What we know:
The structure holds three protein chains of three kinds.
Chain A: H1 22-51, H2 56-61, H3 67-76, H4 83-95, H5 109-144, H6 149-163, H7 166-180, H8 205-211, H9 215-252, H10 255-262, H11 267-304, H12 310-319, H13 323-351
Chain B: E1 7-18, E2 21-33, E3 37-41, H1 48-56, E4 63-66, E5 69-72, E6 75-76, H2 82-88, E7 93-96, H3 100-103, H4 110-119, H5 126-139, H6 145-149, H7 158-170, E8 176-180, H8 188-205, E9 208-213, H9 216-222, E10 225-230, E11 233-239, H10 249-257
Parallel strand pairs in B: 3-9, 3-10, 7-8, 8-9
Antiparallel strand pairs in B: 1-2, 1-4, 1-5, 5-6, 10-11
Helix pairs in contact in B: 4-5, 4-7, 5-7, 7-8
Chain C: H1 6-16, H2 24-40, H3 43-65, H4 97-133, H5 135-149, H6 153-164, H7 168-179, H8 181-195, H9 198-205, H10 210-246, H11 258-265, H12 274-301
Amino acid sequence: xxSGLDRATVVGDGSxxxxxxxxxxxxxxxxTTVALTFLGLLFVTFLIGRVVPIDPVLAAVGDRAPADVYExxxxxxxxxxxxxxxxxxxxxxxxxxxxxxxxxxxxxVVNDIKxxxxxxxxxxxxxxxxxxxxxxxxxxxxxxxxxxxPDQVIRVVGLLGxxxxxxxxxxxxxxxxxxxxDWVPGPGRLDVFYDGLVDPVTGVLxxxxxxxxxxEIFWNAxxxxxxxxxxxxxxxxxxxxxxxxxxxLEQLRQEYITTARVKGVSExxxxxxxxxxxxxxPLVTVIALSYANLLEGSVLTEIVFAWPGxxxxxxxxxxxxxxxxxxxxxxxxxxxxxxVNILSDVLYRAxxxxxx
Amino acid sequence: MAEDPLLTIEDLRVDFETTKxxxxxxxxxxFQVGREKLGIVGESGSGKSVTGRAILGLVPPPGRVAxxxxxxxxTDLLSADNRQMREIRGRRISMVMQDPKFSLNPVxxxxxxxxxxxxxxxxxxxxxxxxxxxEMLAAVRIRxxxxxxxxxxxxxxxxxxxxxxxxxxxxxxxxxxxxxxxTSALDVTVQLQILAILxxxxxxxxxxxxxxxxxxxxxxxxxxxxxxxxAGQVMEILDARDLNQAKHPYxxxxxxxxxxxxxxHNDLAVLKRDPAWLEAKP
Amino acid sequence: xxxxxxxxxxxxxxxxxxxxPVSRRQAWLGRIYLAWRxxxxxxxxxxxxxIVLTLILMAAxxxxxxxxxxxxxxxxxxxxxxxxxxxxxxxxxxxxILSRILYGARLTLYVVVLVAIIAAPVGLLIGxxxxxxxxxxxxxxxxxxxIFLAFPKLILALAFVSALGPGIENAIIAxxxxxxxxxxxxxxxxxxxxxxxxxxNAVRLQGAGSVRIIWSHVVPLCTSSLIVRVTLxxxxxxxxxxxxxxxxxxxxxxxxxxxxxxxxxxxxxxxxWWVATVPGIAIFIVSLGFNLLGxxxxxxLDPKNSER
Lengths: 356, 282, 308
């Protein structure tokens, strides 16, 4: 997983424009960066789409169509236009929400993704929550006890999280906790018995079932969520704990910590209010990045757990060469990724009094 | 010094265990401080800052502190546990540090940091603490204390930050103040202002002050007594007004390095270090 | 070196540790010696080094130490557990898992080395060019870098490989394309730090052109940070490659790619769990090795970013 230190200033830094008031200038820079990055993403997916060795016209008309039908469809698909014009049309379509139609499901890709995305959101959110609630305290403890056994243990736990393949861990988890110990229910979001019994209001099963008071379904969904969320949560925890430890170590070396101790402030308060208070600023960025990383991690985990989220959708489409769906899902995940990156930058500025 | 001393130190030793061997930062320092201003002067590495921190028990690991005596107003600071030390710090001994850019918490409002110093030792409501803090900010001659209360450290100048620091360290009304290079990070004009504030407040409250600096002139003009340190040991302790009759060659060397307005036109002397000064005294 | 007399060893040591080296070679060897001592003192780093060396050995000696051919099916011996004949059992086609792991080490090494060889120089070039020239070239290159940094690696690699078709070379290219941005950032940061220093100015005054300055002076100073970063990234590359393999997008059967082995073993997970589990352990150990090695290198070469 990339270190948070890479992501410094996607937005750019420094020189304020003297023509515009500072907040407006920052906002404009933000918007242009987002737009450019998204455009870049579309460019890459456009290129990938063009690189496919399958002829899209043939795919549409079949290889026994007469020449004039071929030509007509070719013009319909806009393939006779110069490349940059095709790109413009492509961008226009995407911005209007048209990501093509899935060959597999015959729905529009956008509708498919609307259906599957909440499942991934649910998984990633619970996993990140786990990661933060466990990872931050672990990082703090590791920093405070630097060099001693709590630190060693926590660092090993983190190191393991960096070295193990997520899909393999999912498999081992299923083997152990489902097959051998029967502590958790098996793959999927719900037991087959309950499938389709709850109206998908938000798409997030925990919320939907709670809204209508179907507590049996709620607990069933929660049970299914435990293992995949824990596996993903472990990765989140490893990353967050490591970064928290690093930030805490840096803060504990600073002079203002000595000042607090000179004042007679209790060590508890020194660590959890003074030091951690300064750690939150870069840590929020890390948490946002962890969330984005989990979206990627979910791609592989969802296969293992038959979790019908966007990752599952992406890989199924991949295996069936459904390029529209693949590229559509790539764009959506990429857009969320970019969005989360930008959000983390904004949060950083909002939280650090020095950056305002 | 007629009354009993506030602080008595005998044979203080501070060692740091590093990968390159043991570094002896302080090697057998002894002195006493009463309700007076004692200046500790020395170059970098002389151990003066470490001495200040050792008094407060804030020498960072891998440092180890040992002494024959380290008494403050009857309490043995060496054997005091964490809880006892926390009661002493801030309330009875406190310390002003060098650079407010680094010694103030960047994400906490300045006024809250001062109020925290008060609330750590007195159970009061936050409104009362705020009132006291603003009072204290006014006492260090900050003209707009309510506004400064709500400011962040990066929004105030160096001089203002140092006043905040002094306010923070004096608000619990300690008996002894250690000032570790309090003016070294400031412009010369601001230095004098800060010194004036320190002088007034310390005298008003009848406190003891340990003033650590590398600037012999400054210390001589400001303090009652001066202690010269070199390589972790005390070279000489004398009254400030008797500085010109200093006997130790190191002190004399320091004095002759200082340019004087009525000195001659000759080249300034360069301090010659006698290796004998490095040897540990018995 | 125990046969070398004590006095000669001490002489060599004091020569290396001398505070006043008389030749560039002595200074350089002295620094390497100090770095080596710091590195070997770190037990975890040595473990990492050991693992990586074992991987290389396994890959190099696979044809000689593997007890069976990795692609030889033996349908009589399908899905056997660990035994004297098959130390790690057999897979669904009766192939010896141990031999497949050994040959799979070659694939892993192949992927990791090629990605590093492609991505690092590209990143280095872009980063130094951007950092050294400044101005609009810097802005443009960094915008492009930022855009690539903001992309989800695995997803893009997936999309890329799906378009080009599965295969180990396509997987390598896909991973390399998404791996270079961090190196560009590091190279640029280092270049900017060095760019205006006096020794660069001195060389410039002597008439050296920009290219020569970048190549002979700036690049060598970037290398240590880059080496650390590349080593640390290798674990991530291995995991991404395994992920692609798991999806069937990496090396194609019958090549013994570890991720693909996990995938094909998945259907037998409940009863013949070793088929899917053992390759995962191999991936884990190798990633761990690179992580430990990278951490150790960072402590030695780049201490200001170290986590100690």
